[in-house]
């Protein structure tokens, strides 16, 4: 293998726009695993939304979830490390979402919680194969929060992003998809988590290949020895990568792995 660790984004990268895992992509990822590469899913999803993808691949191991805020092991569901949110820093975000009528959820490493559910949100969670816990946040917020996610139309998320561009906050806003904005600890990122994991298992960055498609993937694409952006990526993501692969709907990950993951004699 040319690379000992392969970091793969999920939505818009491994999965098609219909949230399907193409057969050819599945086979290519398993070929890389069989050849000796450690496969690490690096996703904005929480573990409960990422485990089904890992299981469909027929693999187990470490996952970098919540945009790097929680790194977990699938076999025993242990949290290897996480970056918590200070609960008091979420007060303004919750008030803003309520005033604007924007759907949001709160996440610990393994639990997702919502105050209410719309039909659009139900369909979105079903696609991601997660079932949020419905509860009130009027009292104290739960401990161990790692991510606060806003969900809505692209126009709504564009407006939120513009509105919060100059507002003071101790947290970072990450655009993790056209329909999502994640609010997290400023130290959390896929790149930070990948760097920390690589150091703990003794793999140099030159032996890491990363593939992604969105703004939340830029840090891991820049850290990896080889960063590959999907052709369905925004230009800023392509600019941050070393190479560009085919689109997620064309099974671009399969071709990228078969072209670049193996050492050529």
TrEMBL record:
It comes from the Bacteria. GO terms for molecular function: magnesium ion binding; phosphatase activity. GO terms for cellular component: cytosol. Pfam families: Hydrolase_3. PROSITE patterns: COF_1. Coiled coil: none annotated. InterPro entries: Cof, HAD-like_sf, HAD-SF_hydro_IIB, HAD_sf. NCBIfam families: Cof-subfamily, HAD-SF-IIB. This is HAD family phosphatase. The lineage of its organism: Bacteria, Bacillati, Bacillota, Bacilli, Bacillales.
């Amino acid at each position: 293998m040319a690379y000992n660790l392969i970091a793969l984004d999920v939505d818009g990268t491994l999965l098609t726009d219909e949230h399907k895992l193409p057969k050819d992509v599945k086979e290519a990822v398993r070929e890389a695993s069989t050849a000796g590469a450690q496969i690490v899913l690096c996703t904005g999803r929480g573990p409960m939304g990422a485990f089904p993808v890992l299981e469909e691949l027929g693999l187990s191991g470490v996952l970098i979830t919540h945009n790097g805020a929680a790194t977990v092991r699938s076999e025993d569901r242990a949290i290897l490390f996480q970056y918590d949110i200070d609960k008091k820093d979420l007060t303004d975000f919750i008030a803003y979402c309520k005033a604007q009528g924007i759907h949001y959820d709160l996440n610990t490493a393994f639990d997702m919680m919502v105050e209410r559910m719309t039909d659009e949100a139900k369909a979105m969670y079903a696609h991601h194969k997660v079932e949020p816990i419905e509860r009130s946040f009027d009292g104290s917020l739960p401990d161990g929060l790692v991510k606060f996610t806003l969900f809505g139309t692209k126009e709504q998320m564009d407006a939120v992003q513009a509105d919060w561009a100059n507002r003071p906050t101790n947290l970072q806003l990450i655009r993790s998809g056209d329909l999502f904005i994640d609010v997290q600890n400023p130290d959390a990122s896929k790149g930070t988590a990948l760097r920390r994991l690589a150091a703990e298992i003794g793999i140099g960055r030159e032996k890491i290949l990363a593939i992604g498609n969105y703004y939340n993937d830029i840090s891991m694409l820049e850290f990896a020895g080889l960063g590959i952006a999907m052709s369905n990526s925004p230009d800023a993501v392509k600019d941050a990568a070393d190479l560009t692969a085919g689109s997620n709907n064309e099974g671009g990950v399969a071709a990228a792995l078969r072209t670049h993951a193996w050492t050529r004699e």
